[in-house]
């Protein structure tokens, strides 16, 4: 570090999509941030692209210089692939740190790994924070939702930094300290499981309307946009509605028909299902969504099987209102399963998760932000029988109204193939 240069309040290691976006967000919020990367040429490119924000960025090459550029006690955010790369970086940087310093893993880590790392570093008087970050590149750059798991000591230091860059729902920053060690990463894992299930429900409605009712993508997109103006409002529904109106400029075909229909996955949905089953909790919707993603990747088998078994055999005759009610029921059940899994883990690990607060920090800057989260937060602030979301008066009433539509849609879908 150059002589006389002010030290940074936080360091970011890893200038990929998410790391660079978060670093720019910090710089724009007036936070002095040190940055470094394994491939050194990325550092200079990042600073150049930062433009005027570079005045709040302290670029460093090498771990020793990076660590030396930070105020103490140090806060270092790693935005790198989970698993072995994170263990390797901890091993490399821990000897350079001092008691009281904090390491943050901002990736999609398995919460068991986070608990193990936190326990190991605690023996060196170092703090380890597992932080789930939702919102993708856009959210990271302009305001993500962040789920923090770690010590009270670390949170006291992190709170002003993270609240400065978090998304806001009104005046409420969408970041919270949810509990110790792996609490933040577990909540993010379940968040991703809910995301899988909600996306699968949207995909299934599209399939029913496109193949069962012979509606073109643009018509279905318009329907989703209408739904997004009401109780079903959500980020995932909004972007799907927009996507279905796009046309591929090269072929002139709807963009959705040009996109390769094989979905990948990084493992968090699967982790949700595994933990739910281990704890004896139902995750049927999330499990079905994970399975559907796996099956979608079997492109060759699906195509060949359709030649033998045939495709859809009949027409769907469900009204738009019936479909909307069925989707509402599915969404409520999806969130209810997710929060039931969170409740079970909170009890097992004594995390004392605040379910209302979790719903609140998901309301902005978050991939699964939706209108239903206000109702979920309100429900958990009241008296829910046995903590079961589907038994909350508001949701019990809605489910009673919408379940008949869900049954109608499912039965017709099965009948029509």
What topology does this entry show?
Elements: E1 10-13, H1 17-28, E2 33-36, H2 41-50, E3 57-59, H3 63-68, E4 75-78, H4 84-93, E5 102-105, H5 111-122, E6 127-134, H6 136-142, E7 145-149, H7 152-165, E8 168-169, E9 172-173, E10 175-179, H8 183-212, H9 217-227, H10 235-243, H11 255-258, H12 268-278, H13 284-296, H14 299-309, H15 320-349, H16 355-361, H17 372-381, H18 393-416
Parallel strand pairs: 1-2, 1-4, 2-3, 4-5, 5-6, 7-10
Antiparallel strand pairs: 6-7, 8-9
Helix pairs in contact: 1-6, 8-12, 8-13, 8-15, 9-10, 12-13, 15-18, 16-17
Catalytic activity: 6-phospho-D-gluconate + NADP(+) = D-ribulose 5-phosphate + CO2 + NADPH
Protein name: 6-phosphogluconate dehydrogenase, decarboxylating
Subunit structure: Homodimer.
Would you mind describing this structure in some detail?
Keywords: Gluconate utilization, NADP, Oxidoreductase, Pentose shunt. Its EC number is 1.1.1.44. It catalyses: 6-phospho-D-gluconate + NADP(+) = D-ribulose 5-phosphate + CO2 + NADPH. It is a single chain. With 417 residues, this protein is α/β, with parallel strands linked by helices. It has 2 domains: 10-188, 3-Layer(aba) Sandwich (Rossmann fold); 190-416, N-(1-d-carboxylethyl)-l-norvaline Dehydrogenase, domain 2 (Orthogonal Bundle), CATH 1.10.1040. The protein has helices at 17-28, 41-50, 63-68, 84-93, 111-122, 136-142, 152-165, 183-212, 217-227, 235-243, 255-258, 268-278, 284-296, 299-309, 320-349, 355-361, 372-381, 393-416; strands at residues 10-13, 33-36, 57-59, 75-78, 102-105, 127-134, 145-149, 168-169, 172-173, 175-179. Helix 5 (111-122) links the parallel strand 5 and strand 6 (127-134). The protein is globular and about 70 Å long. It starts with 9 loop residues before the first strand and ends with a helix. The model has no long low-confidence stretch (mean pLDDT 94).
């Amino acid at each position: 570090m150059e002589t006389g240069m002010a030290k940074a309040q936080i360091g970011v290691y890893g200038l990929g999509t998410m790391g660079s976006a978060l670093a720019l967000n910090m710089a724009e919020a007036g936070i002095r941030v040190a940055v470094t990367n394994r491939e050194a040429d990325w550092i200079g490119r990042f600073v150049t692209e930062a433009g005027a924000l570079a005045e709040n960025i302290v670029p460093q090459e090498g771990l020793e210089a990076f660590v030396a550029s930070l105020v103490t006690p140090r806060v270092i955010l790693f935005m790198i692939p989970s698993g072995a790369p994170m263990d390797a970086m901890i091993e490399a940087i821990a000897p350079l740190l001092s008691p009281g310093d904090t390491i943050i893993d901002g990736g999609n880590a398995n919460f068991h790994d986070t608990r193990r790392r936190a326990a190991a570093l605690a023996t060196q008087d170092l703090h380890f924070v597992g932080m789930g970050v939702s919102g993708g590149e856009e959210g990271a750059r302009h305001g993500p939702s962040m789920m923090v798991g770690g010590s009270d000591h670390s949170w006291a230091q992190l709170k002003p930094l993270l609240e400065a860059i978090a998304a806001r729902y009104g005046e409420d920053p969408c970041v919270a300290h949810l509990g110790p060690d792996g609490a933040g990463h577990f909540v993010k894992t379940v968040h991703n499981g809910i995301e899988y299930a909600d996306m699968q429900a949207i995909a299934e409605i599209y399939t029913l309307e496109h193949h069962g009712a012979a509606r073109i993508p643009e018509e279905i997109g318009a329907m989703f946009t209408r739904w997004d103006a009401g109780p079903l409002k959500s980020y995932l529904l909004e972007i799907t509605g927009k996507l279905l109106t796009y046309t591929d400029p090269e072929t002139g075909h709807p963009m959705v028909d040009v996109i390769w229909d094989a979905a990948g996955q990084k493992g968090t949905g699967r982790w949700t299902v595994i933990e739910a089953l281990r704890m004896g909790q139902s995750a049927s919707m999330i499990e079905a969504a994970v399975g559907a993603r796996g099956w979608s990747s079997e492109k060759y088998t699906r195509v060949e099987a359709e030649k033998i078994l045939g495709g859809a055999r009949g027409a769907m005759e469900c009204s738009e209102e019936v479909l909307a009610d069925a989707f509402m029921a599915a969404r409520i059940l999806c969130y209810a399963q997710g929060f039931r899994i969170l409740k079970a883990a909170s009890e097992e690990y004594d995390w004392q998760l605040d379910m209302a607060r979790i719903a609140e920090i998901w309301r902005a800057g978050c991939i699964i932000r939706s209108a239903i989260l206000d109702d979920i937060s309100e429900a958990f602030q009241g008296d829910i029988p046995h903590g079961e979301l589907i038994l909350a008066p508001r949701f019990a009433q809605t489910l009673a109204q919408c379940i008949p539509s869900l049954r109608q849609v499912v039965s017709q879908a099965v009948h029509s193939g």
